[in-house]
Amino acid sequence: MIKIEHINKSFGKQQVLKDICLEIPAGQVVGLLGPNGAGKSTLMKILIGLWKADSGQVSVPARIGYLPENNPLYEEMYVTEYLCFMAKLTANSQQQTASVDTLIDKVGLTPERHKHIRELSKGYRQRVGLAQALLGDPQLLILDEPTTGLDPNQLVEIRALIRSLGKDRTVILSTHIMQEVREMCDRVVILDHGNIKADRPINEIKDLEQLFIDSTHG
Question: In CATH, what number does 1-62+139-218 get?
């Protein structure tokens, strides 16, 4: 269970998050939807401990995987070399190194495993980022704009992969794309100007676009 209680965050005079409260049970895929500047990335960075909230409390699992929007990678490394390197940075390095082969297969990187990362398409680079985020078998997986820049075929594949990852862990993903929320998520949380404007199960929403418009205008 993830509990977010009365989180507030400001940068200078600008309040970015305003009294955010959420509870997310284990095994749920939640989409954070909102316009630019809504506070999505700020909330994610607080959840992973990169930033500290000004007030409020956050309770998250001990093991968290994170894929940032820009997906930083060491492009001169081979795929397997990079993932083994990242595995060795974790607490249980021997176990994590042994799990790299399993992760490569799980995210569909086997045909590309001996290539330099710089040689990969955008879609395969995203798979490398996902594999890195899955090192340590995280209980919570946080994905910031995970499908940005992908072509239609890559979109289908990455969406299916993310959906499958949500079967045995909690996934929170930030996106601007409502179709992604419909296809991947169990629940949507709409943020606007630092406020939660809607929090609904996907199967209870007849018109997500209209809900978004109603929540972010006026």
Answer: 3.40.50.300
Model pTM above 0.85: yes
pLDDT in tens, 13-71: 999 999 999 999 988 999 999 998 899 999 999 999 999 999 999 999 989 999 998 89
* Sign of the dihedral defined by the CA atoms of residues 43, 216, 24, 165, in that order: negative
Residue 185 forms beta bridges with which residues? none
Exposed/middle/buried for 56, CB within 10 Å: 0-12, 13-18, 19+?
middle
Domain ranges of the chain: 1-62+139-218, 74-136
φ, ψ dihedrals at 20, nearest 5°: -80, 125
Number of Cβ within 10 Å of residue 34's Cβ equals 25
| Contacts for 148 with CB less than 8 Å, ≥ 6 apart | 69
Residue 12, phi-psi category: left (phi > 0), alpha (psi -120 to 50), beta (remainder): left
Q: How far apart are CA 116 and CA 195, in angstroms?
A: 42
CA nearest neighbour of 107 among 134, 145, 74: 134
H/E run at residue 82: helix 79-88
Strand locations in the chain, DSSP E? 2-11, 14-24, 29-33, 55-59, 64-67, 140-144, 170-175, 187-192, 195-201
